[in-house]
Fold each of these.
Amino acid sequence: MPQGTGAIWDSLRTPGLYRPQSSERPQIDRAEVLRYLGYAGQELKPDLAERIEHVICQVEETLLPSGVRQAFPVDATGTDEDGLPCVRLAGTTVELRGRDAYRHLRGACCCMLLVCTLGMASERALRLLGSRRPLESAVYDAACSAYVEAALDQMDAAVSDDAQKLGLSRNWRFSAGYGDCPLEAQDSIVATCNAGRLLGVTVTPAHLLLPSKSVTAFVGLFEGEPASANDRPGCSTCRLRGSCAYRARGTTCYRS
Amino acid sequence: MDFSLDTAAPVTAAREAGYAYTPRSLDRVRADDDLRAVLEGRRHLLFDGGMGTMLQAAGLKAGERPELLNLTHPDAIRRVHEAYVAAGCEVVTTNTFGANAHKLDGAATVQEVFDAAVRIARASGARYVAGDIGPIGALLRPMGTLSFDEAYELFAEQVRAAAAAGVDLFIIETMTDLAEIKAAVLACRENSDLPIFATMTFEGDGRTFLGTSPEVAAVTLDALGVDALGINCSLGPAELHPLARRMLAVTAKPIIVQANAGLPRIEDGRTVYDIAPEAYAQAVRGMVDDGVTIVGGCCGTTPEYMRLLAEVLQNHEPIARSMDPVFTTTSAQRLVALPQDEQRIAVIGERINPTGKKRLQRALRDGDLDYVVGQGISQQEQGADVLDVNVGLPGIDEADTICRVCEQLSGAVSLPLQIDSTDPVAVEAAVRRYAGKPIINSVNGKRESLDAILPIAAHYGADVVGLTLDERGIPETAKARFEIAQRIVNEAAGYGIGPERILIDCLVMTASTNQNQALEILRAVALCRARLGVRCTLGVSNISFGLPARELMNATFLSAAFGAGLDAPIMNPGSARYMDVVRSFRVLNAEDEGSSAFIERYGTWADPYKVASGAVPAAASSPAPAGDGRATADASTSTGASTAAADVPQSDTELAQHLILTGRRDGMREAVERLLATNDPMDVVNGILIPALDEVGRLFDQGKYFLPQLMASAEAARAGFDTIRDVMPADDVTSKGAVCLATVKGDIHDIGKNIVRMLLENYGYAVFDLGRDVDPEDVLACVRERGVRVVGLSALMTTTVPAMRKTVELLHAEVPDVKVIVGGAVLTPEYAREIGADYYAKDAAETARICEELFS
């Protein structure tokens, strides 16, 4: 990490808590919820639209996202035991394996780790709806996915602000599990960000996050032009592109 | 000394093996005089401060396991301990916060780490060495994937290692899950005789991440027999002060607080915390003045902070504290309290009891826990305060079933549970694993019952319902009932169970056959309440057996029983009439302060008795039971058919199909009822409902419908099927075949699987839904037990596909005739073939089509 001084540098390196008040909470993108539910322009009758909207409002009104972010210096020179690129974050146990993470972080001065969650209340609500009310449950699930993304967008916007103040550029946020970056990295990201203690996020033996409406991500910060600046993770790096239901409908699982 | 002789778990197994149960008390705890004085609240004790903070300052990597430093850098750890001892700390905490087999993950053994950590701590010259036990780092079921028993084993391994290495006490800390801390406390109690200190961590909203409040934590930990309890981490001392006060108000146990030094930030490249030592000590002083006797520090605190705390404690006399006896029961999210000197009402919901309930019996036999949990959710919505859970049915494994039901209930409802069984093994199995302080229903005056149930209640700190019957049966007089109650109270006292933990049930006899007993029962309630220090419960509805207008009789009896001192009626909260009585009595006993809840609910209430004179009855008020002669609302005025648009077809066949196609439930029941008047039920299913569902499936497949539309249609169809099921005798509704569904081991996503289930049930299959995170062996067991031919497996993540492969392989090896359908976001047809699945389904509609093919 550049040995710059001053409050901004310190703020990048300080574990940054994201705890929006009710008035600051993000808005759920309705179109995104519908897209997660497979919507592709079908006729949506008012009563069903109302049911969906009701669930989305419930998510917005009852859940408050929380998150933590922290930047660490990048060492993109290493390889793993198979000789594949392995990006390490200095002073941490984080190892981001594979070509995609390498392409994303090579040349970065530091990497901002982000962890965001909707908390155990979302998990309880999903259990409560469960198979008793499958429609509400599916909508709730989709609304939570959109909500946690919206929360991450807020955290991300703050990263952009800080990067700009420092004269740094940044690239897209990337997550373990995309491309060839193994999901296993989530364990060390959660541990490094102390997200268990700070947010109540845990990782299962299969490297899934619990509460399930949680996300880890990382962003490269650069002194010059960012790596993969225009190469946003999308269908090109996705191993499911051949059988993707979204693509079949002419949409994507992410916002384009 | 072999402690397993008297406190071996489970209690029932130890008793079976001939051991006598002795309850734990302070004089059975191994502690020197000073430590004993601390545990009795007569002496202060100063713990140490942060360890992780100091190690990170010394170069520990973020995300690294600090416990391994005990083996690699013992001197660095020792220097931290020594600095705290020099600052005046009496207790140093071993560097073993995450030293469990799950987190160590083979990097070292638990014993190695504890041996080294305790040796280092001893070498610091500290007066006491506390064996530190932190969270496992994996979430317990029902939210997570770790079982209570697995958690217990992980903790027990730590406890045995720490005890063997020579710690003086245990500090269980930073817990957020009541189930997890319960497993840790039991592991300490059952594997050592050392003092147990236990703390939980609360967020700014005053709850742990899993929703536990300081009151719930304090009451539950107190009941479990920890010796000191309290709060650590997350917030600074000033913010923890009000939370500590809330704990002080509900327990007489010594309270421990270990606050953070605020939040960390980087200044000039160094980590600093925003609360300075002086301000920290000042805030702690306030807590000590309020009655907190044990203090220390957490994240960000250093020896400098502790030196100031030592000054705070010096020459400070602990405040003597005592508690009025209160009946308390808890879930992880809720505390229900019934004080001795005032009468409060707690409604115990009785609906989870298969006696006389065919649908619930079927659900229990089929393992359909969703239905059972649904009964709990609706009672919570109706106003129950506690849920009675009884799953006793001939031919089912009661201990296994009640544990699974309680686990699922605790994930969906927030009410404390009352474990209702005549089988002590089932009682203990459920009480042991329950995240909270449950009520046991029940013990009675028979010697056999007292000997079997009271040790369980004592060991797990549970409450107990005492029935006033004994070897001679149920006595007729109030006095004789009182005498049995008194005997139960005396026996319980021998196990350390005070009367405040007992609910006496004076046993309601039916008025139609024992008319002279009705008032005797109420007299018995008044006697027990006045003289024994207990609370009283009654199964109210027994009074009206054999009489007409049962709800009227029950409501009258309920009012009278409240007048006699009844605290906790066991009743159906779904009866608006009973709840009307409860809510109005809560005004009379001053529980509903300022009558505000009553006014809010009944302010615009239309009294059903006034219906005859022209008022419109309120939907939520008491529905008049059939045959009591009162006017009732005209049900025909409110069918949902009016919601359908102008293009609604006229014939009932077309209407039913139209409702399915447009995804509307309202009006479906009526349409199907009319159809059943002139059609054979199976013709309605196969000729009307299924073709409409097929059409929906086609539209979905063509992309003309999207998922919520498919599901709304499935709901409408289900309303039709439910109507047919209600009308027809159960045996006549033949299932098309049985399908077993599961989300594979390790995977926690079940939305997709739930959609498949809904659709398959609509098509008339018997679906055995095993839930999520399911072991391959459990799928196989279900296939064998239920004679299932088709299995549907779901996996959402690449990391769980190997578990899917394993399940497919096991099924193909053991039951080669069974066909396996797989689906889930990461699967592709190629991938499905590669792992050996028989079919790949891209969505729920396709799963239904494959099943049609397989079962045709």
Note: Residues 134-165 of chain A form the longest helix (32 residues).
Amino acid sequence: MGLLQRALDEAGLCTLSITQNLEITAIVMPSRALYVGHPFGLTFGAVEDAKTQRQVLETMLDAAVTMTHRGIRDSGFEWAWDDLRARQLRKQGR
Amino acid sequence: MRDGRGANFAQIERDHVRTRVYAPFEWHPFDQFSPYTPLGVPVSDARVAFVTTAGVHLAAQPAFDTGADAGDPSWRAIPVETSLIDLALSHGGYDTRRASADKNVVLPLDHLRALRDEGRIGSLSPAVYSFMGYIADTDRLLTVEGPAVAARLMADRVDLVLLAPT
């Protein structure tokens, strides 16, 4: 995602991405990223959790306006449903 | 910010890919952030585009190649008014069964359209651009496919591009 964002940034587009992993984003360094601590494959929240899905999207829109410098911002969204994210980060779950 | 809770996922992912899938894999590092272009209009006036790497495509479009060791840097353009029921997922990096049950978890089209209809967003670009996130050989992404999508987004005259991974 970060490399693709870089290509769009280089073209002069205004971009804002979600990152689900800080280490990778620190390597690729796209212009602006919002950290969301959700599992891979559940980027915006749990299945049928429309409230959280919309909140993440609205937080992106807010960050697109208020992040006036390059870098990574913590959205505050964390995953508390189960240990899926922790297992994914150990490559012990998909 | 908490992330890997002590583990370095970039290192874990690198070792996993190199050992099991694509031996030449290495992250493509940069020492500077890419250029930042400020949003030039209020969000309520902005034309917003969405880019995903969740492996989403129209059921009628070719699936992404989830069997290629070096990954698949191709992309699909999906009309923004597409019903979620007409979308399919092909991605080897995560269990797509969850997102298949509610595609808004990776591509929140219902919410994007609602925000537009409520006036929170000015308008939406005509297409969503979709990639499959496993791209171990990034040369073609950086030199061909990424710039091609950038050109499409410029032609779409978008003010803001939101990108979401998986």
Note: Chain A has a mean pLDDT of 96.
